[in-house]
Specification:
The chain is an alpha/beta fold. The chain is about 30% helix and about 15% strand. The protein is built from 14 helices and 17 strands. The strands form 5 sheets. Strands 3-7-8-9-6 form a 5-stranded mixed beta sheet. It has a 5-stranded parallel beta sheet with strand order 12-11-10-13-14, with helices on both faces. It is globular and about 70 Å long. The two termini are about 30 Å apart.
Length: about 450
């Protein structure tokens, strides 16, 4: 069973990426160095917040006074119509979640991502990038683009969303992309079925200029805070540590225990005001995941009922689509939170995983995600906090961290199973059941 960990404070040990117990303390010198690096980023990385990848947050949104000019330019260009997932990637890129990427990947960036899970910058430094952020086009679109060096990206309503400049068109090696990203080419992978299988045989990369901020008009846009807005919020709350927790399903009592215990441990380490970023994934998810609207209602209820402290918790939606690519994808999830200002990342069992689409087994080893994060290139400045296993302790009548010395006292209950246990009367339910029924 994994306990919660942090990385060693000494930079000389960072290449080993061997997790240590969370009770370790970072040296004051290391903290000062972090703050100085952040200060050097001026508006892009403030005070105690971790520095974004590449040293600054990328913002690809057009200035308001130039929007009309860009719309006119877009109308005169060859166009590429965006799918829903394409639009989600435009959103991700435009706000700097993938900093320092300045647009859809050109071939060199695509190959580095596919083969090395990282990008080498001009100064020789390396940043993590584990999933390709690419835009596919078909033969007819390629023909229409011809020799043009820029294209307009069009939304489902026919209006221009963005411009893509200095474009490069190259072959879309679908089989290799799938095999390297997922570790299998088995049929039935949700993202592959939705976004790759029937996509064009070409990829188009270039520098992105986004004309309008991406909005979904689903009543949840106010939750979609950009990395810059999140950094502003963390600064406003005087956060000296930010720990991020991603989930794609409702919060249950085990999650709540983990998050509150993590904050307690960070306080024990000497941090004065650790702030939780509760960051549900809001892009494409598979059909049997809980819809985003219901998840957000449940997350709000968690704060309303005081399960998590509203003063030290920020809830926001992460706009990325979900790949279900296990240890490969969890690196992307962690890297994006660096750009949002998080310096601690909680990783669970089988992060970004799923059942094998053909065989009756999990697609990935449940422990590989946290192991990969501890070694991944370009994530050295992020402290990885592996999940502590929580279960329902029958002797205490509540959720607690599992103790291997008395396994008979614990029930491992999923949120779905929890709703079926015990009496239907709230007054007679166990805390686990009451929590699930009240919030899911």
């Amino acid at each position: 069973m994994a306990s919660i960990f942090c990385k060693p404070a000494s930079p000389s040990l960072s290449h080993q990426r061997r997790p240590l117990a969370l009770s370790c303390r970072f040296s004051p010198a290391a903290s000062v160095r972090l703050r100085r690096r952040a200060a050097a980023g001026a508006l892009h990385a403030r005070a105690a917040l971790i520095e974004p990848d590449g040293g600054r947050l990328v913002d690809l949104r057009v200035e308001p006074l130039r929007k009309d000019e860009k719309r006119r330019e877009a109308r005169a260009l060859p166009s590429v119509k965006l799918s829903r997932i394409d639009l989600e990637w435009v959103h991700v890129l435009s706000e700097g979640w993938a900093s320092p990427l300045s647009g859809f990947m050109r071939e060199s960036e695509f190959l580095q991502t596919l083969h090395f899970n990282s990008l080498r910058l001009e100064d020789g430094s390396v940043v993590n990038m584990s999933v390709p952020i690419v835009l596919a086009i078909d033969d007819s679109q390629k023909h229409k683009i011809g020799e043009s060096k820029k294209v307009a990206l069009i939304g489902s309503d026919g209006k221009p969303v963005a411009l893509l400049r200095d474009i490069e068109i190259y072959k879309h090696p679908k089989e290799e992309r799938i095999a390297r990203t997922w570790g299998t080419t088995a049929p039935g992978l949700p993202y592959v079925e939705e976004a790759i299988k029937n996509a064009g045989n070409w990829l188009i990369g270039g520098d992105l200029e986004v004309i309008e901020p991406i909005k979904y008009h689903d009543g949840l846009d106010h939750f979609r805070l950009s990395p810059a807005q999140l950094r502003e919020e963390f600064t406003k709350r005087n956060a000296d540590a930010v720990f991020a927790f991603q989930l794609r399903n409702p919060v249950h009592n085990g999650h709540a225990l983990l998050m509150t215990d993590t904050r307690r441990r960070l306080l024990d380490m000497g941090y004065k005001n650790p702030v939780l970023l509760l960051h549900p994934l809001g892009g494409f998810t598979k059909a049997d995941d809980v819809p985003l609207s219901w998840r957000m209602k449940q997350h709000e209820k968690v704060l309303e009922d005081g399960v998590l402290d509203p003063e030290t918790t920020v809830i926001s939606i992460f706009p990325s689509p979900m790949h279900y690519a296990g240890p490969t994808e969890v690196q992307w999830h962690a890297k994006a939170r660096i750009n949002a200002g998080a310096n601690f990342y909680i990783v669970g069992r089988d992060p970004a995983g799923m059942g094998h689409p053909v065989e009756k087994r999990d697609l990935y080893d449940a422990d590989h995600g946290k192991k990969v994060l501890s070694m991944a290139p370009g994530l050295d400045k992020l402290n990885i906090l592996p999940f502590r296993v929580a279960a329902y302790d029958k002797t205490q009548g509540k959720m607690a961290f599992f103790e291997p010395s008395r396994p008979q006292d614990f029930l491992f209950i999923s949120g779905t199973k929890g709703t079926t246990l015990g009496p239907t009367s709230p007054s007679k339910q166990t805390p686990f059941v009451r929590f699930i029924n009240g919030l899911c």
